[in-house]
Amino acid sequence: MASSLLEQLWARIAPAVKGRAEASGDMTEIKMIVGLGNPGREYAGTRHNAGFDVVDSLARQLGVDVKKKKFGGLFGQCVLDDKTVMLLKPQRYMNCSGEVVATARGFYKLALEDIIVVTDDMALEPGRIRIRPKGSSGGHNGLEDIIARLGSDEFTRLRIGIGESSEQMATDYVLARPGDEEKELKEKAVEKAAQAVICWVKEGVDAAMNKFNVRNNA
Question: What is the pTM of this model?
């Protein structure tokens, strides 16, 4: 009788215990991939949404639906090389991305080294990508808000080059869709960035930088 009661009690509390263990990372290593962009159809395909595009590419490759509403973003997860991989697309517009990232990080008690943020970068020419383990926002408002909310800039970021225009204001340029030639470069960079993120998950940031921070990576 006592054994039966204990089994019933464990059956009730086991899911909660398992959930807390997973959230704290006790059961498996967790990696969070954050793609930055602006929500809404009017922003789909714009230069500024390169981070969203990378998460979408990863979702296709890994067989993940990034549709669950969680932490103020769209969320999905899977397992890759015995690591739990979380994909997150903040839905509070680019300049307010930090609250979403900080909330998710706090819930799962993630170390900063287990977070990678993917974003566009006007300082890189179209088609190039660059990975850094830490650093300033470089004037990117989404990164700036994340740094402020996390209280640190020591998280990995992957930047996708979109170039800049001498004919348009920066805001107009990043919120516009690229022309055919640039679009092709962007699509190649997005796929390369997805590969780089997978490398980061499997092998770490140093390996990813060595393999993907090369001049001809477009």
Answer: 0.84
